[in-house]
Each structure stands twice: as structure tokens, then as C-alpha cells.
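>> received
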Amino acid sequence: MEISNREKAAAIQNSIETETLEQIGLINPRSYRQHNINVADGFQAILGLHDLMPMEKVYTNVIRAFQDGDIGFVHVDYHLFEPTVAFDIHRFENGLSVEHWDNLQVNTKKVNKSGRTMTDGKTKSVDHHLTEDNKKLAAAFVNEVMVGRNFSLAEKYFNGDVLIQHNPYMGDGVSEFFNVLAEWKNEGKEQVYVAVQKVLGEGNFVLVLSEGYVGTTHSAFYDLYRIENNKIIEHWDVVEEIPSLENQKNTNGKF
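>> returned
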């Protein structure tokens, strides 16, 4: 029986630990477009990267797995070269992954102000009939509030001050979220969202890929939102620097 795209994406990422990427046969060896711009294009480049990893330390733990049409996307707790949290996205054609995006951040391995980690919390999607509505809601929040910087509009996207927060440097609450953003601005490391690049969702989980800056550092923001009763209730994120063009190892672009 054909497995789902979410299951395929999870299997691909889990194969890093088991060193079975070639054997599982879920990546097209002749056509694999890579958007991790720290890695060269193509399937062989992935195999070469795995050869460099300290395999005695490597583990993969797929925490969440979702699918949106021909795309499977996963939230992963890794040890690759160091403890890492990532989102990995695969686009499938004829059952095989032909395109990959990801965003990686060092895992602090500490709880945040509210005792939460970067990956704990709800894991299973519900309300599948509301997928498109939830994607529109999350996209509107990021476009209006984060990109548009219309912070006064934020209240319509939340149930009062309720926000379960997994960012390692924040605690729970909508007010806490915006207070910390203001603190970072005063410290010269403001998070500036410039454009939403991609929106993926399944049921009440929506992943929004955005481009912007942390201070002056060109960055990619991957924000995962859990939505309940048409309000954002939980948030996970991964932020990664986008290297300059001369330091990119493929020409496909981050997004």
C-alpha cells in the first residue's frame, strides 16, 4: 500500500540516523532540487553530507508530520553536527521526493520562561476540513502583523493573551511575544519580516515560510502555528541565517 507524503517525508529524515537513505528509495536520484543553500544540488550531495556527520552522535526524532497536497513536511529534533531543531519539506512526484526545503536552528536544550522546549506540545492535526481557512488565517497574521508591522491588528488573531509559546527565548502569552520583540529591537537584533514565501497546512497546523532580517542578518523564518476556533493558540519557530550569494552552494534559492 502506498504510504502518505507525510510518512514519506518522515521516513526520509529518519533515514539519516539509520544510514538507509539509498535503500528506502524515496528520493529521485536523477532529479532532486535542493533549497538548503548550504548543500550542493542533487541526491549525491546529500549522501556526501551524511558521510561527514559524526554518526556515533547522530539521531533523528520526527516530532510532527503533515502533508499538503504533493508536499510532506516534518518538524524534527536532530543531532546532526550539533543538537538541532528543523523543519524539512519535500515535494513528491510519482512517489519520489524531487525538491527539498529546510530551516535549521541550534537546539538550546533548555526550557523557555514557561517551561517549554522547542519541540514539545501538541503533535496531531485535527479539523482537516478547515485546512484552507486556517492557512488563510495564519498567512493573514504574518502578512498584516509581522510583515506589515500593524501590531494593533494582532488582537483579532488571538483569544485574549493566550499563546502557548515554544520559542526558546520567550514565555507564554501574546503580550510577552510582542514585549520580547520590542526588547530585541532595542538591543539591535530586531526581527523584521519582509515577505511571506510559502504557506503549508494540514488541519489546524500551518507552517508559514517568510524572509526577513534579524538585525542586519538576512534570515529565513519558519513559523508553525496551531489554530483553535479560528484563533492562533500555539507557536513554534526556527530561524536561520541566509548566506550571501557567493557562499551559497546551489542556485535554487532558499524558498
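>> The longest strand covers residues 191-202.
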